[in-house]
Amino acid sequence: MSVLNRLAHSLGRRDEVPNQELARDLAAKKDKKGIREIAENLWNKDKNIQADCIKVLYEVGVIEPKLITDYTEDFVKCLRSKNNRLAWGGMTALAEVAKADPDSVFKHLDAIKKAKETGSVITVDNAISTLAYTAAANGKYNEVIFPYLLKHLSFCRPKEVPQHSEKTLPAVNTSNRAEFIKVLDKRMEDLSGGGLARAKRVIKKAIFID
After folding, report:
1. Above 80 in pLDDT, residue 61?
2. How far is it, in rounded angstroms, from Cα 125 to Cα 67?
3. Residue 154 needs a FRET pair 20 to 30 A away by CA distance; which of 2, 37, 50, 80 works?
4. pTM higher than 0.90 for the full model?
């Protein structure tokens, strides 16, 4: 039986539960054939099927990133889609891929940056995670990516600072944390309330990175 029959749209459902259940099953069974069928249908003519498929893939990635690394090129292609669900879903998937195969993600740095500059709020959020996990892989990647992340933190909207600083943390290490803390300290002037408290917690975490 085709795994497509278990997608939310195929079941006449409007919630995401069937997609999440399917992702859990595919990951638990390491069902590469089923995952491939889902990936092939990112380009189904029905946008509802596309949306369900990208959801299943990034949910599989959350559980076991290695199971979706073969589809990095597809996720990058999604970034250029006019279907916004595919665009931000593709970036969400890339954030998981970056944990298991940062090399494949680093090759597409320009496409990721472009999508971040032009994409929706969710695309931007996940782009920060994608870049941070890729930067965390090694010194070379960090040297290229970290200044870009710091520049973003320096100029993004105040309300984005707490969340984006949290998402940047994987890329922070003993050699760059001073720069990170300096940028975040400066942004404190723009923050108040819960946002300020969150940013302070991020700084505290950065201080204790070893």
Report:
1. yes
2. 23
3. 80
4. yes
